[in-house]
């Protein structure tokens, strides 16, 4: 739980994109909240990502356009240190919220090396983080 006060709603929401798998739920929630609060979504794409990730970010941008949601797209400098880059970018634009997908199928590597989502959740700027659990249905629809 972040201690940062909630006063004016959500005007700037950061949406990190790290893979092509499962962004459908996160995108729908982003549209819902952006429309409720007249917010801008800041898509933050993992740098050096594969073509599928960039294709996914373009599809998300198209979805925002079709739903009249303001957005920006920015690529991280590189893939390593992604969580820190998300946190730094979020603080630099005075983000009101960061939206991430949780990963229920974390492997041993994640437990040993840590997870980028934990770094984002416990960010030093105290920016609230909305964690969205993927539904199996979304992976089936996307064929992933």
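Sequence proposed for the structure above (144 residues):
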């Amino acid at each position: 739980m972040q201690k940062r006060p909630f006063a004016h709603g959500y005007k700037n929401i950061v949406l990190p994109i790290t893979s092509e798998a499962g962004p459908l739920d996160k995108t729908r929630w982003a549209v819902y909240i952006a429309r409720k609060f007249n917010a801008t979504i800041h898509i933050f794409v993992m740098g050096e990502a594969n073509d599928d990730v960039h294709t996914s970010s373009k599809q998300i941008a198209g979805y925002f356009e079709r739903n009249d949601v303001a957005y920006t797209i920015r690529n991280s400098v590189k893939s390593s240190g992604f969580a820190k880059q998300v946190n730094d970018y979020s603080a630099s634009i005075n983000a009101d919220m960061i939206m991430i997908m949780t990963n229920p199928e974390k492997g041993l590597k994640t437990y040993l090396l840590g997870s980028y989502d934990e770094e984002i959740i416990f960010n030093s700027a105290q920016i609230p983080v909305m964690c969205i659990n993927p539904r199996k249905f979304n992976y089936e629809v996307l064929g992933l």
